[in-house]
Design goal:
Largest sheet: 4 strands, mixed
Shape: globular
Number of helices: 2
Order of helices and strands: EEEHEHEE
Strand order of the largest sheet: 3-4-6-5
Strand content: 25-35%
Length: about 110
Amino acid sequence: MHTSPWNTPISLTSWFAFQKYHSSLFNLATPQPVNLIYYDAFAPGAQPELWTVDAFTHLFGMLTAGGILVTYCSKSDVRRAMMAAGFVVNKIPGPHGKREMVRAVKPAAGHET
């Protein structure tokens, strides 16, 4: 995945594809809504503009209903920004070497946050 070309859809299986975009976050537009965003930005202290309500509102708009954003950042102010953007937010156990991570879900139509 790390060596795949930018801006080109890559099919790993018949039911899973991904695409790396070479763009700034606020200029990023996908041709259709996405199901999953793996948000691996630098920490809020290094890139605070990527951890704001505006940033999460933009990402929220890119997801399908029921779509998920995951990140290793679990700071309370980040979780509050996600909730303010409309996500339902939960801390979940992280993989080996990471204590926890955050799963933010865009509610399905008709469900409240």
